[in-house]
Automatic annotation (TrEMBL):
Stated name of the protein: Protein-glutamate methylesterase/protein-glutamine glutaminase
Name of the gene this protein is made from: cheB
4-aspartylphosphate: residues bearing it: D66
Active-site positions on this chain: S204, H232, D328
UniProt feature coiled coil, ranges: none
Entries under CDD domains matching the protein: CheB_Rec (cd16432), REC_CheB-like (cd17541)
Length: 388
């Protein structure tokens, strides 16, 4: 059954449409959002066709979209929703399964801004505090982003689009205050004078799309060092993500295995549900997996990985922090910088959510803040040339 709310929401509320074939899920998620002061559920629909037909009337800022639905599923509906209202962001809800992971990554490639893993069966969803917290946080951050962009007359960028040709990247000058796209002037550090021997990357909301574009932009230079990635994702999802990243980078990629030595040219993805660290055994750096408590509600988290890499590789560490909610990675980025390494952050204009890169910049950890299309070529230059 379809429900379109009649009352107009307050102008500063985030407008949300819920599309799910389960009436229980629609009701439950509606209640969660309506208990918050900053959301207005403007419509609920049981399949994608009804949602697509209602987009211009309900004008949602955020659509929470189920994937498996009768009549029109989420993947079919997704491009229709974005065509009807291009400034809407779509948050895909999918099950914690291999099929759900594959479908979520396909949805991101089609233009979804992010995904949220949905507990299964429905009974567990009602009692899942983690799912509720993640859903509400993502809708809030994505919705705020849409409204800010709308006020500025801009459209939220989607890194799912094909990578743009990289613009020439100017060499970074000595440490000084340089203008940044949306924060005026920020203090940046000098790049390390030591050639990079490891590349570590942290990302969250919008990360899979940004990672694909970054790895393609970095190109053959990645063969020269090991690449470690923490993307906030649950188990199974990280397995599938590693496969997709390997294809995008044309490199060997898999989840990290405890005790596995680091090999140049290989991509190691932190497995969902475990922190991934690096430690030295003898004279060889190896992967260590940890079941330590979540950091910033996340496991894997970026901070522990960045800190461990900085401890082992020191000034030879090159870190990249991409789009994502929250502040995970800022403390670790500062550890890299204080060890003499270099950190590059994605800029606000090309981030789906600028929480993590912005926090790293605010911490004073960054040597550069660049658009996503420039980060890969810049990293390639640093690896091959050794100097900024």
């Amino acid at each position: 059954m379809t429900n379109v709310t009649g009352a107009a929401p307050a102008g500063d509320q985030i407008r949300v449409m819920i599309v799910d074939d389960s009436a229980v899920v629609r009701g439950l998620v509606s209640r969660w959002l309506e208990e918050e002061h900053d959301f207005a559920v403007v419509a609920t629909h049981r399949h994608g066709r009804l949602a697509a037909q209602d987009m211009t009337h309900s004008r949602p800022d955020v659509v929470i979209l189920d994937i498996e639905m009768p009549e029109m599923d989420g993947l079919t509906a997704l491009p229709l929703l974005l065509k009807a209202k291009p400034d809407t962001v779509v948050l895909v809800a999918s099950t914690l399964s291999q099929r759900g992971a594959e479908t979520s990554l396909r949805a991101l490639a089609l233009g979804a801004a992010d995904y949220v893993p949905k507990p299964d069966p429905t009974g567990r969803l009602a009692t899942s505090a983690d799912f509720r917290r993640e859903l509400v946080e993502k809708v809030r951050h994505l919705g705020q982003r849409v409204r800010a962009r709308s006020a500025a007359g801009q459209r939220l960028p989607l890194e799912a689009s094909a990578p743009k040709p990289a613009a020439p990247v100017a060499a970074a000058p000595a440490p000084q205050s340089r203008p940044h796209a949306s924060r005026g002037v920020e203090k940046l550090r000098p790049y390390s004078s030591v050639p990079a021997r490891v590349l570590c990357i942290g990302s969250s909301t919008g990360g899979p799309q940004a990672l694909m574009q970054f790895l393609q932009g970095a190109g053959p230079a990645l063969a020269r060092l090991p690449i470690l990635i923490v993307q906030h994702m649950p188990p199974t999802f990280t397995t599938i993500l590693a496969q997709h990243l390997g294809r995008a980078a044309k490199r060997e990629a898999a989840e990290g295995v405890d005790g596995e030595p680091l090999v140049a040219g290989r991509i190691y993805v932190a497995p969902g549900g475990r922190h991934m660290l690096v430690e030295k055994v003898g004279d060889k750096p190896v992967i260590r997996l940890s079941d330590a408590p979540p950091v910033h509600f996340c496991r894997p988290a970026v901070d522990p990985m960045f800190e461990s890499v900085a401890h082992v590789f020191g000034a030879a560490t090159l870190g990249v922090i991409l789009t994502g909610m929250g502040s995970d990675g800022a403390r670790g980025a500062l550890a890299i910088a204080e060890a003499g390494g270099s950190v590059i952050a994605q800029n606000e204009a090309t981030s789906v959510v600028w929480g993590m890169p912005g926090a790293a910049l605010a911490a004073g950890a960054c040597a550069a803040v660049l658009p996503i299309e420039e980060i890969g070529p810049k990293v390639s230059q640093l690896i091959v040339g050794g100097k900024a």
